[in-house]
Amino acid sequence: MTAYRGLDAPRGPGYFLFWKAAFVAMLLVTVGFLWAASNSVEYVWRWNRIPQYFWVQKHVDVRAEQQGTLVETLTKDGARFVVLQEDDGTRVQQKLEPGMSLTPAQGDYVYLGDVLGTYRVSEPGVLLQGLWVTLEVSLISIVFGITFGVLTGLARISENPALKWGAITYIELIRGSPLLVQIFLWYFVAGTLVNNLLMQAGLGQVPPMWFGVLALSVFTGAYVAEIVRAGIQSVHRGQMEAARSLGLNYSQAMRKVILPQAFRRIMPPLAGQFISLVKDSSLLGVIAIRELTKATREVVSSSLQPFELWILCAVLYLLLTFTLSLFVSYLENKAVR
């Protein structure tokens, strides 16, 4: 009969109950510390002002584009128009917004720039717009980063010297320099050259967001390449030999046998890399991309509410990264089954 000793001994119900209670106690102590620290700071908390930065409801004034006497209002093709008669008898029409309340009455004289009426606008606030930009940039960069990483990882283990040395050079250069420096180079150097060439050709300019996406994608691709290389090399060589013995060529064996096994093993480190990418997107504010961090900084400057807004910014990033982590865990469990 096997004798259990030390860490091998079975755990009773009391063991788990004790450590669960210890975890809850640590959470309560942490919350209490934060509560006491917030109360000790001479700061007026104004959480009630935060919703306006998520969704804005405002009144917009519509001003007269001509001057004259308000003669009538009419409806054509579902749109409302106000008719003004100028001093020389000429009648002009100006379109009104849906749901707009008219300020002057019929027969009133309206001068150029006078308020004809107001209408209500409901639109996403600064923080919600910044959150959407962060999500958009992150998702596009993840797709491009996976593409760059897989291709570079395959080139890294290739027997072709040009592909192998090129992959090594790319990986070492990108991983050996800060992301912030790379963003500056992509935007101020490569971006300036590309946009100048496009301008000379009479074409449109490339928006700053795409240079930010390219910087994040290239940076992430270098790390994904090493993750993919390690995952491929972790698969036993006998798998490749067995696939080749069945008549598959190298590319078919890699695509149908090696890569599916490798991807199951590299999903956890890939999730960590993609979570880092979401947080690294906060650096794009330096090239005038209004992502979540830059939007928060602008609101803090105008509202003078640093504590509430930066705490909220951290919570929003946590929601993004936690959701991504759950999605990758779902894919990992599905792949294992």
Automatic annotation (TrEMBL):
Its main location: membrane. The keyword Transcription regulation does not apply. GO terms for molecular function: transmembrane transporter activity. Residues 131-328 form the ABC transmembrane type-1 domain. The keyword DNA-binding does not apply. One of its GO terms (cellular component) is ATP-binding cassette (ABC) transporter complex. GO terms for biological process: amino acid transport. The chain crosses the membrane at residues 15-37, 131-155, 209-228, 309-331. It is a multi-pass membrane protein. Keywords: Amino-acid transport, Cell membrane, Membrane, Transmembrane, Transmembrane helix, Transport. It holds the Pfam family BPD_transp_1. It is found in: Cell inner membrane; Cell membrane. Part of the binding-protein-dependent transport system for glutamine; probably responsible for the translocation of the substrate across the membrane. Belongs to the binding-protein-dependent transport system permease family. HisMQ subfamily. This is Putative glutamine transport system permease protein GlnP.
